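Can you please make up a whole protein chain along with its backbone structure tokens because I've never seen that pairing?
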Amino acid sequence: MFWFVVCWVLVGGIFGWLASRKEQGPSAVLSDVKYGILTAVLAGLVWFPFFRVDSEDPFIRAFNFLLFSVFSAICGAAPGLWLVHSLQSRGRGSQRQRQSG
């Protein structure tokens, strides 16, 4: 289980960093990496019972580990970061309307 979590954190951090490339400022990078890791780990914990394969063959175990870890982290980080970015842009839009009005 430890290595699954490590993989989720790495993939979530990479997705967060990639998502922060369109934003500007160091706070955007830290925020996106944090949300990427959080959503990837949460998705991994949700998906973990469904992808559990007990096998003695090391190739099957390695393939299952890589496939499951990356798939669950992507399925968590991508929609999670999209949601965070859409909520942040909605908040910025309402602030601009208040300032101009």
